[in-house]
């Protein structure tokens, strides 16, 4: 079928729009970003070639390291909670009973809403005077004076945001883990039951090893998402106090747009893209292997 | 001897089975209760937001806050309706962006998926990898150069420009889903049609499209959710307030409102309105959503 020159021509014709789109809106900007990163440019003045100055500047920039460190801290704290929590939920709801199906659908609902919307929701819940969280903790007798959750202390803000994001995305891992657990051949589980394996043995010797690849892939997706965190910090703390909760993407945004240091912003973007690339390649290698 | 042994064994196993059965039934109820508690915890923030949006203006600004409204009122929605340029402008921008993004994503990936699955393209593997380029370059990093380009093309402050960014974000996932869907269609149907004199475009429209409708629903659904919710791209591209999308105007409203401090009631009315379409399409098209997630998220 179409296995001739005409077929090749037709195929190219059909793929051309997508090809053009990726060239124009992904490949070209990427090339331009590399070029811009070697220039000093503020939009008002013309670009000026500065070599690697933007990169050396980044390494000496305290805020760059603060942001990177904060982003890593956020990622390191939230990832294990999301993975262990998501897996525990998956074990709870993996069987196909009506209640479990319902629970799956409910736990997944926050995944489909916007991170912006959920951040605005939690911005209110964590509000010092107007929020329900202080009110609830107060009524339960756990608090005697209101806590300033957001924008006053970097660590407390980080934890408040982590709570909101766990609520928002834990269903994502859960759903993929459920699919992986349900994909385990029933003979394997039955054999283990016949051999008298305890639930704990079944989980550690069968379920976990047989779903390990999914766990690794979801971990990578989650790590990449956390390293690119922006919306929740922009909305809930605006980087406060003193830009201590400004994540890496936040710092790139600040430099590129409000400050209009385009060259510097591009250099920071490339450094960030390089870090992300490591994780993405790992993810691709892992998913490749599974198809083989 | 053997009979004695079996009786002895039965005597030993029976009480253990009884305990196990009792324990199992108790565990069943415990797990059920736990699941219900988890569901309540997951739903509470959304319910609290909806309830807060229905408080009267004074109650919404009360310190300490009330858990639920002591009288229902749509004041917050009325204020949101008239906020700045008016809610219909922002919802309109969001809907227009999403509609263009859906159309662009479908148009590009249906044709490209068809080409990749059915034609002998030169360097097909390399081509496919190139089309998935956006997978390895996070769009957050590309916004600076795209902004420069769009500034020259007069595509900043335009729903078309923003829709292009949302399409670029969705393209790899959508292409992957479409190509797989085209590959799953049996070839004989198409061959029969071509023998009958159909050209490749007719074969696409008449033979393939009906078979790839589920994939198209999945692609459109994810494009909608992404576009409707996307924040950073809109924040960078849309600088005039009348071009803001819903998430942008709500984010702006968290600090600057007409009644002095933050208008918490109006903010939660906005959250409720932006959340409803997402939950509605998810509940209606759950099957497609889950299918897309399983095929695309963990490739």
From TrEMBL, chain A:
The chain crosses the membrane at residues 12-31, 74-93, 105-125, 159-181, 210-230, 262-286. Pfam families: BPD_transp_1. One of its GO terms (cellular component) is plasma membrane. It is found in: Cell membrane. Residues 68-283 form the ABC transmembrane type-1 domain. Keywords: Cell membrane, Membrane, Transmembrane, Transmembrane helix, Transport. It is a multi-pass membrane protein. GO terms for biological process: transmembrane transport. Belongs to the binding-protein-dependent transport system permease family. This is Sugar ABC transporter permease. It comes from Devosia nanyangense.
